[in-house]
Task: inverse folding
């Protein structure tokens, strides 16, 4: 909310030395967020008031151009000083008082005014609009000052309020009362200990005669409804300059006198008003919920189909206003309106909030209603608006005021007087609690309990519906006393604790993948059915069993992800759409794995600690959320250059990524051929640790790649990190001072024998001297026979305590070959 300092000062007795920064610091001190402080004195040079003496219309140009003779002061001889100025606006006439920037003036944005020839005339200055002066956004017309408010040549800086400042605040949803000058001035009076004149205490003349009958059919939707009628309003009467200026500084455009007055009262008191053209209303009015199929054309010209949850104001013809959000086009104020019906009401905040979002109609009024409006201010607001229409629109208040409804008064809240001291750990002065609660408008009663404990019973004011429990009162006392007075004592970190074994493993895996050239990403944790369909998952696949989010950020992605590949695919799609096709991505995060018959989450109250049974039910309702690591590769793994042609990413890179993870985790990984969606059935590896399947790696299925728009032959790996056993192994190299003995063997086996299986048998048969086994060639041909293949292995033998003899290495090699022959039917290829 934007508010000028001069408007706040009208209700406070501010010392002369008070600056906008002083007020901003006070707001921050009591818990309000100040976004910006803007000083309006951005105009440098001669800015004066001028009277338009003569206007010459230049009709030979494509757009309306006027050459104006403007009196801007007196010459040295005392004669009127008149200067010619070109202007394209037409909202002023001869005799009007305007603001003139003379040559040498620098307007906001470092726009310097000079005398120059344009449209065949010499323009000696500029007649300014509110936007050009930096006091509003209205650029449609020239700023016309009230007649008699100044003389030509007077300094216009103070005249138009350019010596003012604007404080812009971000109001949190629980402080709807701060969406008004009234509420903000009260907060400043509490922070600065200054006298405060409450504009909400204006006297309201007693008048029990209803101005128009109103029926409230749903008291929960509307707790109070007030009408005040003003007739004989001059529809051509302009809004006073001071009002237009305040609205402009608050960011609201001036429209007409009646509309400007309702906006002004809303900003002043926090009570939104709506003005009806009385002549366009038919019969008595009814406030109710909309009926199915009803429609209303709102002020923006759109015909809207109403929802049964919407609150509407109706006359005999049907809905004429979408309550609290926007009026109807059929009863809007026009340039011929002379009879105005002013309405102020108190609407149900939750209903208004739903209507705003349903119809996508945010507004200043709706912003206040959905945060609660003081129900006691409605009559004051309509009376103030009516009096302003009388004063500036020459209208007459029609006797009678409609005031129906009975708002529910706030409930008293009782708490120990010393509770704020206990919560904050501060011994406040005696009487602080009662005094601070009284400042915010509470009616205070102090008593003593049977145990001799001092109690305070606070009845909140009507504008503070958020004060419901002792904790709310404690917060008010603490923030008004100043959060800076609360000691900040950080607990000492207990010694001897560091990262858990699982945390260390996660970091080690992350560093290892980054060292291999993978880039870590943080994808969106939600997935849609379309992605699971594109993966080709069967209907009974466990990865389709997930949890749906009711208030999803995106309606087409409302499911908690059961696989990291969904988020990685989305990240790759975004990069590919931006021209990046060579990608190596990884992510470590949680997935959800609901059980087949996952129990629902029980409803647990907040008034007391849950029982052990309730806690057990809550834990049982939570799905398993293991931590996975996922990798996605596409494009070139090794880029082309002068050094060579490069290399495309392949299934082997995905498998190697799994080996990197296993190595960093300190476990041995077994790789076996598999067929598992969404991988290519002939290029998919099953990852095992200790006989347990922990993940899969390989090339994605071509149909999946095509459906998702990924680079050809995109490869992926996903592994359950929590399924890996935790080890105490520390990564320390073991360097032997003795040389190895290197030997190669080629074993012929059946096609059905996996290379990993053969390596495991050879490693076991080679004994302790066999240090390493590596597959370096696979061959199949006619010489071997049908259904046979040759696997060439490089063996490395080493003794930890001596130089190994050739005979010892040969004996260990023969033992490894013999083990392969016995278990797998392998034969040594010569």
Result:
């Amino acid at each position: 909310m934007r508010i000028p300092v001069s408007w706040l000062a009208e209700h406070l007795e501010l010392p002369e030395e008070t600056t906008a920064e002083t007020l901003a610091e006070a707001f921050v001190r009591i818990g309000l967020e100040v976004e910006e402080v803007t000083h309006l004195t951005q105009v440098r040079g001669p800015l004066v008031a001028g009277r338009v003496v003569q206007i010459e219309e230049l009709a030979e140009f494509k757009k309306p151009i006027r050459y104006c003779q403007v009196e801007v002061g007196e010459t040295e001889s005392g004669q009127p000083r008149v200067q010619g100025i070109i202007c394209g606006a037409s909202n002023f006439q001869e005799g009007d008082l305007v603001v003139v920037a003379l040559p040498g003036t620098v307007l906001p944005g470092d726009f310097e005014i000079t005398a120059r020839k344009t449209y065949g005339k010499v323009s000696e200055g500029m007649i300014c609009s509110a936007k050009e002066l930096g006091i509003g956004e209205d650029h449609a017309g020239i700023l016309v000052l009230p007649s008699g408010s100044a003389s030509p040549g007077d300094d216009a800086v103070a005249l138009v309020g350019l010596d003012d400042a604007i404080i812009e605040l971000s109001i949190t949803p629980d402080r709807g009362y701060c969406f008004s000058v009234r509420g903000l001035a009260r907060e400043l009076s509490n922070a600065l200990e200054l006298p405060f004149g409450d504009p909400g205490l204006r006297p309201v003349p007693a008048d029990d005669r209803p101005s128009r009958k109103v029926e409230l059919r749903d008291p929960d939707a509307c707790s109070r409804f007030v009408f005040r009628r003003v007739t004989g309003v001059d529809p051509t009467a302009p809004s006073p300059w001071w009002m237009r200026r305040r609205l402009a500084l608050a960011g609201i455009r001036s429209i007409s006198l009646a509309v400007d007055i309702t906006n002004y009262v809303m900003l002043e008191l926090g009570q939104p008003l709506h003005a009806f053209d009385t002549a366009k209303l038919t019969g008595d009015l009814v406030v109710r919920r909309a009926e199915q199929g009803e429609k209303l054309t709102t002020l923006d010209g759109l015909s809207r189909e109403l929802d049964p949850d919407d609150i509407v104001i109706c006359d005999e013809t049907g809905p004429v206003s979408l309550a609290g959000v926007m009026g109807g086009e059929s009863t809007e104020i026009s340039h011929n309106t002379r009879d105005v019906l002013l309405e102020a009401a108190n609407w149900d905040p939750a209903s208004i909030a739903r209507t705003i979002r349903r119809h996508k109609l945010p507004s200043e009024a709706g912003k206040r209603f959905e945060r609660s409006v003081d129900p006691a201010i409605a009559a004051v607001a309509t009376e103030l608006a009516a009096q302003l229409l009388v004063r500036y629109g020459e209208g007459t208040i029609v006797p009678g005021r409609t005031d129906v409804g009975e708002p529910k008064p706030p409930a008293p809240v009782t708490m120990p007087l010393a509770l704020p001291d206990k919560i904050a750990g501060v011994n406040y002065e005696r009487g602080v609690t009662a005094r601070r609660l009284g400042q915010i408008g509470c009616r205070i009663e102090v008593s003593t309990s049977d145990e001799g404990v001092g109690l305070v019973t606070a009845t909140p004011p009507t504008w503070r519906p958020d004060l419901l429990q002792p904790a709310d009162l404690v917060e008010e006392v603490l923030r008004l006393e100043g959060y800076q007075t609360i000691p900040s004592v950080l607990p000492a970190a207990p010694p001897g604790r560091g990262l858990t074994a699982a945390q260390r493993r996660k970091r080690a895996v992350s560093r290892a993948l980054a060292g291999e050239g993978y880039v870590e990403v943080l994808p969106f944790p939600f997935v849609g059915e379309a992605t699971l369909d594109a993966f080709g998952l069967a209907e009974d696949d466990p990865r389709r069993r997930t949890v749906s989010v009711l208030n999803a950020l995106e309606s087409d992605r409302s499911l908690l992800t059961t696989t990291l590949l969904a988020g990685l695919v989305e990240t790759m799609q975004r990069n590919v759409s931006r021209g990046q096709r060579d990608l190596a991505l990884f992510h470590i995060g949680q997935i959800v794995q609901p059980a087949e018959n996952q129990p629902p989450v029980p409803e647990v109250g907040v008034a007391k600690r849950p029982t052990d049974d309730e806690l057990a039910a809550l834990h049982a309702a939570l799905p398993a959320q293991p931590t996975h690591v996922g990798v996605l590769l596409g494009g070139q793994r090794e880029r082309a250059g002068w050094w060579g042609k490069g290399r495309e990413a392949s299934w082997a890179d995905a498998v190697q990524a799994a080996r990197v993870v296993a190595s960093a985790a300190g476990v041995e990984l077994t790789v076996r051929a598999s067929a598992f969606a969404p991988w290519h059935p002939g290029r998919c590896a099953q990852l095992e640790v200790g006989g347990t399947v922990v993940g899969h790696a390989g090339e994605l299925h071509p149909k999946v790649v095509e459906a998702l728009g990924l680079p050809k032959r995109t490869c992926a790996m996903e592994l359950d990190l929590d399924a890996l056993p935790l080890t105490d192994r520390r990564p320390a190299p073991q360097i032997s001072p003795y040389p190895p003995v290197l030997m190669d063997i080629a074993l012929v086996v059946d096609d059905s024998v996996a290379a990993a299986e053969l390596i495991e048998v050879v490693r076991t048969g080679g004994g302790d001297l066999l240090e390493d086994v590596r597959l370096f060639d696979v061959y199949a041909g006619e010489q071997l026979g049908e259904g046979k293949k040759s696997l060439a292995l490089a063996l490395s033998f080493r003794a930890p305590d001596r130089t190994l003899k050739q005979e010892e290495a040969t004996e260990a090699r023969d033992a490894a070959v013999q083990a392969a022959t016995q278990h797998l039917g392998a034969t040594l290829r010569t």
Remarks:
- The mean pLDDT is 90.
- The first helix runs from residue 5 to 9.
- The first strand starts at residue 2 and ends at 4.
